[in-house]
Design brief:
Order of helices and strands: EHHEEEEEEEEEEEH
Helix content: under 10%
Structural class: mainly beta
Number of domains: 2
Number of helices: 3
Distance between the termini: 29 Å
Number of strands: 12
Length: 231
């Protein structure tokens, strides 16, 4: 099952010495000499940044606008490595649902002295594993790996909707209900600001699937976000 990692690099800081790198100085000179509007992105040094997943044979380079995309048969906890042509290196640790898509938006590589910053948007076909209607939270796993990584989802600001567009009360949702998830991936809280579109199918026999409450403190890839992401 193919998983997608995409996004864009939006900013690169100064080198550790506090002076612009040679590449940055040359890029600034190119911006002055070239009148073409499309050169503005390249002048910011957003092109040619190598993006790879550590431990996997997956890599690409950003285009002149800083965009990148990787696809492959990967999921769970990953470390995304960014390497600029002049040697600036940064790593983002995150998680990806199998068969889904994670977008790292507006990656800021900074000056290399701290971890890069980025907002994270996740999309995937999921299945309800468990829910707590009192606390307005749910545990959702990828439907392509229902006994795998569990994503805590905040239901406080949204109600799942049926295929016809009607809101579905929390108490009416069955474990095993299929759902398409779109939301912001918070490294600590899980998925927030979610949009949940219920599908016309139910995956049976999920009673034995581990939930976030039963797997608290686990260090395996099968667990909650809090167990695989640094706080």
């Amino acid at each position: 099952m193919i998983t997608t990692l995409a996004g864009n690099v939006a900013a690169i800081g100064l080198a550790r010495s506090g002076t612009p790198s040679l590449r940055s100085r040359l890029a600034a000179l190119a911006e002055i000499l070239s009148p073409a509007p499309r050169s503005a992105f390249a002048a910011n040094g957003l092109d040619g940044i190598r993006v790879s997943v550590i431990g996997l044979d997956l890599s690409t380079e950003t285009d002149e606008t800083g965009q990148f995309q990787l696809t492959g048969a990967f999921a769970g906890a990953i470390d995304v490595l960014f390497e600029t042509p002049d040697g600036l290196v940064g790593t983002i640790s995150t998680v990806v649902p199998r068969g889904g898509k994670l977008v790292l938006r507006d990656v800021d590589l900074g000056d290399g002295s701290s971890a890069p910053r980025a907002s994270r948007h996740v999309e995937f076909e999921g299945v309800f594993v468990d829910k707590d209607c009192i606390s307005r939270t749910a545990d959702i796993a990828s439907r392509f790996e229902p006994e795998g990584l569990v994503f805590p989802v905040d239901l406080g600001s949204t109600l799942p909707r049926t295929p016809s567009g009607l809101p579905m009360p929390c108490l009416a949702i069955q474990n095993g209900a299929a759902v398409v998830v779109h939301g912001t991936l918070d490294p600590v809280s899980g998925i927030i600001d979610a949009c949940l579109d219920l599908q016309d199918r139910v995956l049976p026999e999920l009673d034995s699937v581990p939930t976030s409450s039963s797997m608290e403190g686990s260090t395996d890839l099968v667990g909650t976000l809090s167990s695989v992401l640094p706080r």
